[in-house]
Write a structure and sequence with these properties.
The complex is a heterodimer of chains A (301) and B (378).
Chain A: H1 8-37, H2 55-61, H3 64-97, H4 102-110, H5 117-127, H6 134-138, H7 153-181, H8 185-193, H9 198-226, H10 230-236, H11 255-264, H12 270-297
Helix pairs in contact in A: 1-12, 2-12, 3-7, 3-9, 5-10, 7-9, 9-12, 11-12
Chain B: H1 3-42, H2 47-64, H3 67-106, H4 110-114, H5 128-134, E1 137-138, E2 144-146, H6 150-180, H7 187-197, H8 202-215, H9 227-238, H10 245-256, H11 260-268, H12 273-284, H13 286-302, H14 305-310, H15 321-336, H16 338-362, H17 364-372
Antiparallel strand pairs in B: 1-2
Classes of the chains: A mainly alpha (301), B mainly alpha (378).
Chain lengths: 301, 378
């Protein structure tokens, strides 16, 4: 084997500029946001604070708005993640079982991935329009208000879930389908020789061998659902920062929405938004840790 | 619109799908047959022999399985297939209906939309909505009153997307090279640190970065601000997004597949590390680099939170695509009432969506490959 030369200076040239930019916009923010979260009443322009403490966390955790946002987000996670994951498993298995038109369907199912969230939010806003929308007229519902001023929590929530599922299927279908195609055909041949039923093959071969991919899509959609923001904003069409960007009285506000609203709010110190983002980070960290445990004990590699 | 019409439309769509399927099926059958004949000709067998062989094959099959069982099996298999296709068609309709609604609504006139029952096919195709959104109307103070400033939105997005992508690709190529080929102290530790930053939610970065660019005076350039301030505003949109840990990781995997022997051979021939990178590694990893480029550009097209945060809501000349679309209709809705602008909303959405769809259909294989390796949306 050839003698390795020390590549230190070459690495410095290759990595230097990137690390410099990352130092300012990636490493420093992680440290700084954590510190700001613990600085009481910190004014970022003048740099003055009133000492360190957990005041920001107390403010956030005792704010009914934040608790409401947390409740909304949890509800969105609990409803949307199982629906999208189960539906995309079914679609991927169906796609894998057919030969003709597979590419055609695959392309259609992928379309939501390559669309602009804001633009399609406006489209869903129009589809669910009270007077001129497709949904009300398709199901003969009369003038039911889904996203306007007279909507109810559950109606708006329903539309949000429809949009989330619509938006979230593409990625999972593609990942699961590629997982299915990587399963060794020999397992299926062996099962066919033994005369196993389709359902049994699905349960005993497909699901276990697909489990790493299922876990991966579940975790990414868990994390994605916890960070939901743009799709809610786009659905109501009012833009970020408005008093009703998350529906009447911001009723569908999410954790990320709360963080940005606090960042914008005049007079609120940066520490409050920072504390909110630290809490979000902890939640995501917990999910990742749980994923590690589950993948060790349950997933079939 | 009554139940009968819906049924008719569904039947029509089903018929359309059915005809499409039939055509594909027949063409496939025909091709198979041609191929079989070709093969038979090549192997020197004649048609009669072929038919006899087929007959024997069929009889053999039936000899093993009783006829009624065979029929039951076939019925079951066909039923399952029909159910599968119906399921897939329903999901496809669910995915396509919003697109369809967007297209037809954008070509309807305001009067037709305001008619009590929405029509599934426009009575008359008009370009009224397109004319309206392209016509910019300004307030006395220079802010936008009506219309969507697509020229600025597209121009800004292309500018920001271009610079972000160029610098990101350069940074990613060099970083991936360093982490896959070069040997230096602390390389593993550094890479682990970089990977762990991927777990941190974007909000943590955005809060401090917003503070940083504000302190530099780079946020919220107004309509009549000078060039320095405007350039700063662009820098605020570009700089924080240069480099990407995820793409570095992705490209490193590709670089690692290049065999070591090639590297040693190049070393023996006296080829330097960076020459090796440009002459061998980059050409080999070209598909991956193309994927990264496309995904990065698409990221700029869809970016909403950060551009919305650092630009001035009133200054339409700094808007990118996503926040521009949102801002434009936010003010229009307040001015004219929702009934009049639905077709304009859909026309705007269509114009913003179309470039993405064109890119997707021309570069499908690169995009789908990149997504399998780890997408970010959804």
């Amino acid at each position: 084997m050839l003698e390795w030369k020390k590549d230190g200076w070459k690495a410095a040239i290759a990595l230097g500029p990137t690390l410099l930019i990352m130092a300012v916009f990636t490493f420093y923010p992680i440290v700084n946001t954590f510190i700001m979260a613990f600085r009481n009443n910190y004014k970022f322009l003048s740099g003055v604070d009133e000492g360190f403490g957990i005041q920001n966390f107390v403010t956030v955790l005792s704010d009914p708005r934040f608790l409401g946002a947390l409740k909304n987000t949890l509800l969105m996670v609990v409803v949307s993640v199982p629906i999208t994951v189960i539906l995309s498993i079914l679609i991927a298995v169906a796609l894998n079982s057919i030969e003709r038109l597979r590419g055609f369907f695959q392309t259609i199912f992928f379309l939501p991935y390559v669309t602009n969230t804001i633009a399609l939010g406006l489209v869903f806003n129009t589809v669910f329009h009270k007077d001129f929308g497709l949904f009300n007229s398709l199901f003969n519902l009369g003038a039911v208000d889904w996203l306007g001023a007279e909507t109810t929590y559950w109606r708006a929530f329903f539309v949000l879930m429809v949009y989330t599922v619509w938006n979230g299927l593409a990625f999972k279908i593609i990942v699961l389908l590629s997982g299915l195609q990587n399963i060794d055909k020999q397992y299926y041949q062996a099962a066919a020789i033994d005369g196993a039923s389709k359902w049994r093959i699905f349960r005993k071969i497909t699901i276990p061998l697909l489990s790493p991919m299922i876990l991966y899509t579940t975790i990414t959609s868990f994390i994605g659902a916890f960070k939901v923001y743009t799709s809610v904003i786009s659905l109501f069409g009012k833009g970020a920062g408005a008093s009703n960007s998350f529906g009447p009285d911001n009723m569908l506000i999410t954790v990320v929405g709360y963080i940005y609203n606090k960042l914008w709010e005049a007079g609120t110190p940066f520490g409050v938004a920072s504390a909110g983002s630290v809490i979000l980070f902890v939640i995501i960290l917990l999910i990742t840790l749980i994923q590690r445990r589950v993948s060790k004990s349950r997933v079939h590699y | 619109m009554g139940f009968k019409e819906i049924l008719l439309i569904l039947l029509g769509l089903a018929a359309l799908f059915g005809i499409g399927y039939l055509v594909v099926y027949l063409v496939g059958k025909y091709k198979e047959k041609k191929k079989a004949e070709q093969l038979a000709l090549e192997s020197g067998a004649n048609a009669a022999e072929l038919a006899r062989a087929k007959e024997i094959q069929r009889k053999e099959k039936e000899a093993y399985v009783p006829a009624d069982q065979l029929r039951a099996f076939r019925v079951k298999r066909t039923t399952l297939k029909v159910i599968t296709y119906i399921f897939l068609i329903l999901i496809a309709l669910f995915i396509l209906i919003p697109f369809y609604w967007m297209v037809i609504t954008s070509f309807k006139s305001a009067e037709e939309i305001a008619a009590t029952k929405p029509s599934l096919i426009p009575n008359k195709i008009t370009f009224e909505a397109y004319k309206n959104i392209f016509q910019l109307e300004l307030n006395p103070n220079g802010t936008l009153k009506r219309g969507v400033p697509f020229l600025y939105m597209f121009g800004n997005t292309i500018l920001v997307g271009f610079f972000t992508t160029v610098f990101t690709v350069i940074s990613v190529v060099f970083s991936a090279f360093a982490f896959s080929r070069l040997r230096f102290k602390g390389s593993d530790v550094l890479f682990t640190i970089l990977l762990s930053t991927m777990m941190v939610p974007g909000e943590v970065f955005i809060i401090t970065n917003y503070g940083t660019v504000s302190r530099l005076g780079w946020v919220g350039a107004r309509l009549n601000d000078d060039t320095v301030k405007i350039i700063g505003n662009y820098l605020a949109m570009i700089l924080p997004f240069i480099g990407s840990v995820f793409y570095t990781f992705y490209l490193r995997q590709t670089f690692k597949q290049v065999s070591d022997e090639l590297y040693y051979a190049a070393k023996v021939d006296g080829v330097g590390d960076f020459k090796y990178l440009f002459k061998i590694m980059i050409p080999i990893a070209k598909p991956t680099i193309i994927t990264i480029t496309i995904l990065s550009l698409m990221g700029s097209w869809n970016a909403y939170i950060w551009p919305n945060l650092v630009t001035d809501f009133q200054n339409y000349k700094m808007w990118l695509v996503s926040n521009g679309l949102s801002n434009a209709f936010r003010s229009t809705i307040e001015l004219t009432g929702p009934g009049n602008v639905l077709n304009q909303q859909m026309a705007g959405s269509l114009i913003v969506t179309l470039p993405l769809l064109i890119v997707f259909f021309t570069l499908k294989k690169y995009i789908m490959r990149g997504v399998v390796r780890g997408g970010t949306k959804g």
